[in-house]
## 1
Amino acid sequence: MYSALKHRVYLANIALTKHGLITLTWGNASEIDREAGVVAIKPSGVKYEELSEDDIVVLDLSGRVVEGSLRPSSDAPTHLEIYRSFPEIGGIVHTHSRFATVFSQAVRAIPPMGTTHADAFLGAVECTRRLTPEEVEADYEENTGRVIAETVGSRPVMDVPAVLVSEHGPFTWGADAAEALKNAVILEEVAAMAWHTAMLGKEREISPHLMKKHYERKHGKDAYYGQEKR
């Protein structure tokens, strides 16, 4: 019934391995069909080399399985909470990619050090606060989604389409699963660049006017990077 949605989510999950963002089964991708009110996501613990399109699980926004025979990702409640919080989001990716996770474990934001960062993210990629013992003990995964929403706050959610979860790892998003995947790839690269730049002793972030210029030439109504859509 949801074959097209499951196909897109399958491709996004497989692409995570191709881009080197996944170790073992540490990660997942999902996409929402807002009109149908369902989310497709990778099943829990299934090896990527064994994953098939038919394995993708479809849930409603309350977490009830509506298609699929396997258990959904244990991170599904986090994805669902993000989708409920931000109607603009159409796809989500979670990984434990090395450099982004290093910043998560250090409970530090990824600072905007140069134009590569600014091309995708308008400002720092923030890290959430630590979850309380109560938040971890009860509804842990859903509370992870809530603390992500809390960290985004009043900022336009698509201006910085990523958050680092404290002591855990990164979540990225986009208009669909493919765009969320692209942002996960970019996030890992800029995290690696930021780490190595800091090792060279640079502390100053990119100039605000240069960051704004680079972001706006790729995003927004006056963007001029690339070709017009035909």
## 2
Amino acid sequence: MSSNSSKIDLSANTRNSAIGLLQPRLSDAIDLASQAKQAHWTVKGANFVAMHALFDRIAGDIGGFSDLIAERIASLGGQAEGTARITAERSSLPIYPLNITDSSAHVEALSTALALFGGSVRHAIGAAADVGDQTTADVFTEISRGIDQLLWFVEAHAASGDA
């Protein structure tokens, strides 16, 4: 977790604190992207095409957030730790149910994971600002905005009965 030297004008303590906020969210983001892919691969039902496409979009968007987090860790002089084994050990998200295929069950499981991730990212915005790293807070703000939109897309299916 500790940072190497960097010419970024943040103290080593600030960089280390920011890396400590980023790394757990990287694990969660990688896990969340794989959960969306699981939903994408296994969803069935009347709205298959729409749900299949939505879940794929979610996985792709979250993959982009994973890159953003990992690259911020690296820019702070840290080492991103994002292998499947590390992610499985460290993710704070609930294990995605492997026995579901119904779109409404996927909507429930994925919206729960998105909401939990969104909450942890929102908390990290303030924590990053508190340690003096506004740029990392901005990274988390960008991710939060994106997660809120994805959650809205998923929840719209539940609200309309389309799931």
## 3
Amino acid sequence: MAAYTPQGDLIQLSWDDVMEICRDLAMTVSKEFDPDIVVGVARGGLIPATIIASILRKDLYPVALSRRVRGVIVREKPDILVPVSDEVDGRRVLIVDERSETGETLRLAVRETQKKGAKKVKTAAIFARPGSWKPNYFGFESEAVVIQPWDYELIVSGRFVVNPDYEEMLYARS
């Protein structure tokens, strides 16, 4: 799909990489599906969803589905934190997340969107894992740890620090 070809066990995407992937996804979606609206999966999926919705000139609605609380996995399966908007009723909907690891979150979003009466639903993500459930559209496939540019740094005690989830892997490469 996208021109981006990842290599290695750790991929640190730049904002330019994300833009290129989102532009490629938007172009393909516009040719093959042309949704009426875009639904972005909060948190990380809202960023590519916003970019894609803006490029396509479509309205964007959030949905929050997660296993996490404050970044920590606390549930076995994703739970609905903010439901799908009633605006999906009778419309073609593109659901966007930043990743598809197992596909559970995107599949839950699809089910909820269909329950709300969407006419047709397709999914997109920046990347997907090989051997897992695949979105209809995705930028690339990789087993590597993928660091999104918005997830690289966090604020801890009033200052920016490298996300502890990635720190050891990043410094091991240096």
